[in-house]
Prior knowledge:
The complex is a heterodimer of chains A (268) and B (374).
Chain A: E1 4-12, H1 26-29, H2 39-51, E2 70-74, H3 80-91, H4 110-119, E3 125-128, H5 134-147, E4 153-160, H6 164-170, E5 175-183, E6 191-194, E7 198-200, E8 211-213, H7 224-238, E9 244-251, E10 255-264
Parallel strand pairs in A: 2-3, 2-4, 8-9
Antiparallel strand pairs in A: 1-5, 1-6, 4-5, 6-10, 7-10, 9-10
Helix pairs in contact in A: 2-4, 5-7
Chain B: E1 3-11, H1 17-25, E2 32-33, H2 39-42, E3 46-47, H3 60-76, E4 85-90, H4 96-104, H5 117-123, E5 129-133, H6 139-152, E6 158-165, H7 169-178, E7 201-209, E8 218-227, H8 237-251, E9 260-262, H9 271-283, E10 291-293, H10 296-299, H11 306-320, E11 322-323, E12 340-341, E13 347-348, E14 353-360, E15 364-372
Parallel strand pairs in B: 4-5, 4-6, 9-10, 9-14, 10-12
Antiparallel strand pairs in B: 1-7, 1-8, 2-3, 6-7, 8-15, 11-13, 14-15
Amino acid sequence: xxxxxxxxSAVYAPGTAxxxxxxxxxxxxxxxxxxxxEPAVRLALCAVHRALGLPPGxxxxxxxxxxxxxxxxxxxxxxxxxxxxxxxxxxADDLRGVSPMQAPNASSNIVASSIAIRYGFTGPNLMxxxxxxxxxxxxxxxxxxxRGGRATRAVVVGTEPDxxxxxxxxxxxxxxxxxxxxAAGPGPGPYVEMHPVRxxxxxxxxxxxxxxxxxxxxDDSGATGVLRTARAARRLLDRPDARHAxxxxxxxxxxxxGVHLEVAGAxx
Amino acid sequence: MDIAITGSAxxxxxxxxxxxxxxxxxxxxxxxxxxxxxxxxxxxxxxxxIGPVDEEGExxxxxxxxxxxxxxxxxxxxxxxxxxxxxxxxxxxxEMRGVERWHAEKRTTVPATLHFGxxxxxxxxxxxxxITVSNACSASSHALALACDLIDLGDADAVVAxxxxxxxxxxxxxxxxxxxxxxxxxxxxxxxxxxxLLGDGAVAVVVQRAGSSTRSELRVxxxxxxxxxxxxxAPHPPGLLAAMRDAYQRAGLIPADAGLxxxxxxxxxxxxxxxxxxxxxxxxxxxxxxxxxxIKGAIGHTSGSAxxxxxxxxxxxxxxxxxxxxxxxxxxxPEAEPLDLVIDRPAPTGATLAQVNAFxxxxxxxxxxxxxxx
Lengths: 268, 374
């Protein structure tokens, strides 16, 4: 079995989709537990919350089915602002002014671990910081965890924050997306099957008639691959005439990644 | 599935694999005054640096990684034109130091990427795929888990699992901020431990399907993974145990098969008693438990690289039958007293299987089982 299926997806994008910004994440997540959470973490939590179809407000962990669920997050600039803020305070001789609550945010895997803690996901937990292909690298790693028998379900998240340091380093837009993967198998359709992610020096080209997400790779956002996959999965199920989509991301410096999504099972 | 280690290399404050193992046997430490940052400002005075420390180079972690990957690839005879080769780099701090210096020193040139794609490609041009996994202090062990899965599932012919970390000012500051005084040395499992200090380094381990053509003596029998999903900094015993049990279950082995444990052992208030208690529980029903050692007292906490560095030291100990002592350990904490800790001098071992622990920020746990074949 090489395929996995996408069983849920969501985008949370303050800039383009009109969602409230990171500092208003409490509207979806409830107020508790958000203090000192990075903006990239807040956006990621909002995307997960939405993908899982949870009602607005504080969730009590673990949620149903959380045990053994893997988390694979992708972000390249999730904590760069916090890191720079800490260095500013250090060099101003104000170490005591840095809150110990910021300590976990100095570690880049704060996104993936915060998702696990909030929802109770005890499966393997990975933070991919892999450059422009990161979003699809995350989907690749998540599929590997499922195929390797390490998890029955994987919550895959891409997220990038809206701050001055991230903007200077990437030029990307703040956004998060979540794609939930499970093992492909017989079951009621239609659903979106994800074929193996491929990496290449060149961008892939789509077959005639396929939906195309990507092709204008220009930013270093670690969220892009997940964002495009989430949008593609939604579009495939919304459009009765569409069966295939090609999603790509990457850059000239980091190389390119691509994945073929296919509608499987009978349409109603 | 039999997975062989066909090449490996590391760089620590004490040198390469053989030099580091020899220094560990002699009880030597690579500690020195902390360089490159203002010790008073970060409230940290010591570190386990790779020299020279007169001037801080750009992308130090990348440079060490390139050297390690090149050395390991030659040992393994990798050929990217004939083999499907993938690299997975585990790191705690990425190349964040470059962002810190760019920001604080108001440099005009935006730093190159934070990941290690270019560092690996410099040693292995033509490699199919490089993925950087930023999984805190267990990152390189997570990389090995994915590497083994890629071989198991037939997705790659060879995978280079790596670790790379150079100290970052922000992480040093958080260590200085949360500690009471300042730590003079890393002293794993010691009653008078003062906390963690960082170490520099990189490591690369090539894994391939074991076959008649592989001469390697070392086998990765399984890597177990778990997430505490409990607390971002405090370790959670059920999560640690879950990763250990996952490793043995995947390998088709039981804890009684292990004769050596290379512990995570960070010398912190929370990790050491928690890890010791979990190990005591895991091996508790045995009349004589495995020897337990750790490397951070000699080379510091090398962050994401730590897991695979422990693995290579475990490999040396199994191959040579000598387990190095835990540098910095004099009087064990009560929780560790039931364990057969190696103190003061090397201990002989006839073990063929080692358990190697790595636990990270956010409750991300990875446990490797390494076997030496005769």
